[in-house]
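Possible regression after last week's pipeline update?

I re-ran a chain I had predicted before the update to compare outputs. Posting the input and the new output here so someone can diff against the archived version. Not blocking, just want to make sure nothing changed silently.
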Amino acid sequence: MRGLIAMLGLLVGALALPSALAAEKLPSRYDERRDSFLFNGKQNMPYKLWGVTIKWHRDCMAGKAADCVRLAQAFEKGSGEMAPDMRVSIAYWMKSCEMGVASACTRAATIFRDGSATFVNLDLAQKMADRGCIALKDQGACAALAESMASAGKADGRSAQLIDTACASGADDGCRLKANALFYERKDAAARAEALPMFDKACTAKRAWGCMGLADAYREGWGVAKDAVRSVGYARTGCTQGQGDRLRLCTLYGISLARPGDKASLNKGEDYLDASCNAGDGMACNHLGRIGLSVVSGATTTMEEGLYYLRRGCDLNYGPACSYLSVAYSSGIVVNPDNAVAFSLNDKACRLGDGEGCTLAKGLLAGDSGMRSRIPPIDPSLPVADQLRLAKAAVDGGDKTVGVNAVIRLMQEGNEDAQWMLGGWLYYGLPGMFDLSRQKDGLILFENAARVGHVEAAIYMGMAYWYGDGIAEDRAKGEKYMLIAATRGSEMAGAIYRSMRLEPVRQENARRAKAMEEAMRTRRATWADAMANWKPSWSAPSTTYSPSSTNSVASIIDNSNWNQRINYLSGSTTACPASNHYC
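New output (post-update):
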């Protein structure tokens, strides 16, 4: 939430204009567009190519593996105005692997295994890694093969041998797998003694996994004496300098910074925790939520935001976040007090292994044996997305009270999807529940959702402010909300935002066109007036030239002017004034 607005200034230029500092031409929506598709392990994935990527694709299909890799990286990270799309990226990684790029086989195996392309395919993960390892003789791919075998439940002596060989050859992933197996799986003193030097070597080389092992070791006292200062130092190094998966390291570093009494450090810690929470670490969400709900002095996280983060942590199945969120319901902090909701959350925390949740659940149940029967029909311990789906189905099916109550509860927790849904019911009405008298409340919820990055709400408020639809016109705000939606990946919002930014240009062009039209009318009128009173600007004299003829005063002056011009041309004088029509 907190990082969204801060990013906008940095992204304005990127959305409005292509970078002038780019080392090479980047994909642009102002260039040629072409539709294409590639098999990505699940389907023939349709997508669009822009500008220079059309040439890259053509060269890739012609056998140039480097261009296949370039496209895989472009779709993985984004390039120019082309948004990231892992569903397309994996297709080009597969193609690169087929063309003999061993590192592409390793990357494809990882993506198929971790589901970052929105689906998991362990068979293809193993196939890609097997090609890189066996056919292309790459030890990094051999480590990936061992990891794929473990994910598929096929870990055996062969996978251990692959890991040992990969590590011995210097493959970083091989050493990571070996050290982690020794330290976190075998756990005995001898195994941890063998793993610690591997962690140290890796952390010195700024590999995040090595710093993670050392941070855990010194925090928990595994194989070494406990040393919180050293643990934080390794977490800091891994988070700020490490390569690889730094998520938990940044959470630990953020927790170490977020201490009361030092506002600058606390706020910096909050930023790290926010980033880690948004990236999916429930521990970070839990700690940041507790800061908000506890009203820590100097913190920027509000109580309402605290609820939001705790819910996110609970949805990520981090038990302590569920049990702490329950405190808000049992005590009526921000939300309406409801012991049945608190019990449901603690029950989930207990199932996730959180001791505090078990204790709280037992206490609530002891005080009221019928507690389970009063859990709301839409279980508050379910992930938010599931609750909202059930709520919408309930409203659509006629059980509006059940659906609306669930959405209101989530709205009080600050959930943007709930604000968007309830805002629509308030603004447009929901027969039997809301008439049209609460449209202002609906707009407030729409704007609350837009502020924290809800794409549809941001587009809605962007257009509302731009045109003054139901709200006072404010084009600067309209642009701001449309930019929020664009930075969240909406291509439509990006196009609308660029159009909004060009509105002053269109207005200036319209002004100039109007001015030119007016000038043209003026010139036409001037010409028409002149023609109405036209007379020749010169006509032949009525008498012919004669040296001895008597001239009028006008003729004398005209002759003098003419002589002046001739003298100027012949060089006998250096002046010929502009008042002389011959000059």
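Follow-up from reviewer: compared with the archived run. The longest strand covers residues 33-39. Marking as no regression found.
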